[in-house]
Amino acid sequence: MNVMLLAEVANAGGAVGAGLAAIGAGIGIGQIGKGALEAIARQPEASNDIRGNMILTAALVEGAALFAIIVGFLAMVL
Amino acid sequence: MCRSCKSFIQTLVLTLVFTLSPLFFWAQEHTQEHAQGDAHAEATAPAGEHAQPTEKKKFDAAEVIFGHVLDGHEYHFMDIGEHPVTLPLPIILYSPTRGTWDVFMSSNFEHGHAAYKGYTLLNEHSIHELGLDPKKFSAGTIVPLDANGKFDPTVKYYDLSMTRNVVQMLLALIVFTVLMFRVAGRYKKGIGVTSAPQGSQSLLEPVITFVRDEVAKPNLGHKYERYLPFLLTVFFFILVNNIFGLIPGSANVTGNIAFTVVLGLLSFVVILFSSNKHYWAHIFNPPGVPLGVKFILVPVEFLSVFIKPFALIIRLFANMVAGHIIIICLISLIFIFGELSPIAGWGASPLSIGFTVFIYLIEVLVAFLQAFIFTMLSAVFIGQALEGDHHDSAEGAHH
Questions:
Q1: Full domain range(s) for residue B147
Q2: Is residue B322 within 8 angstroms of chain A, CB to CB?
Q3: Which residue in B317, B322, B376 is closest to A56 by CB distance?
């Protein structure tokens, strides 16, 4: 396959990668939310602790997704 | 609002207004051109954007985005017609080749249209005019010129300017330090120790006790007091810079990789200095691991010593820069649609502004969250390094 427009393909690759990263983040944070909601449903008095842990874990997962977005961005720029 | 907060903010605002307003007006371009079209209703746009594009100048979203997210030698607030409204900043250049220190205001460059003292500021046009490689030279860099006005690659120079990131970081530092010293002074006098906290004390005390009780104590055990200054400084420094970066027209300090690299390095140094024998023993000789697995595990564990601060760096950087880019992109949608037709531009405005406000609120949350996460993870890593020999409880196997 003769890839002539390398810059455009790099941009497309970067965009696709970032999109996939967003899917990953969505799934991951969705799982966290699911676990948190189930835990709160089981024990409403613990909801403050659970909420804190949920936000912390969500930030970590989002960090991983943002790695991928940065890489996608670098694919575009470099 | 508490009385001391109010007077503090009043004095701060008045000082800033009186010292900066002359610069403001001086910075406006006094050209003979009149505005080419009406300026868009930019009252609601959080980030300064170009005015309604003329037939010649298309709206370049990438230029606008990078202009806001990257560092620059001036604060650019908006364009009124063709006049940019900016606040110039000092430029400090040292050239060992020429043997000169040059200190002047960036307004002398007239946004890249003029050369001054043998240097010029690059913009999109001059990169092409000087024949420079756009991959290596980006808009906003200062390059030396020779006598004919051509780029002079032989001149070695150091750009030590006070760019807007530097100025904003120093401003955040001053605001944060002044606030902390005032509050500390009041505690020393006994206000808020045996009585209820007053004024800014009631703002800071819950935050500081939160960092102490939720971040420092659980992770660091009984040694938390040694690390509390570091953790609190990191937390408040990142928080104040994040919040300042959210103000429209301000510089993007925490979304700058250099800033986060230094913070990550500081955390790394603190982690290394607090590590003990057991930590390194656990890395190079993990207990309870069969020999074959050790061959894989030891390199991974050793690399993770470096990867953990690296993750701190990238997490803060990416969160902040992504947030700013999203906000600018959503606002740019108005102008991109406006290129198609003015009706489409106006029609896209309510939707775009609605989304922008929503994302802006999330960004405020992210500002607090990322400061907290950075501090929390630093505390976790320091706690892991500090951990003594935890097999001395009734668990048994002592390695």
A1: 90-161
A2: yes
A3: B376
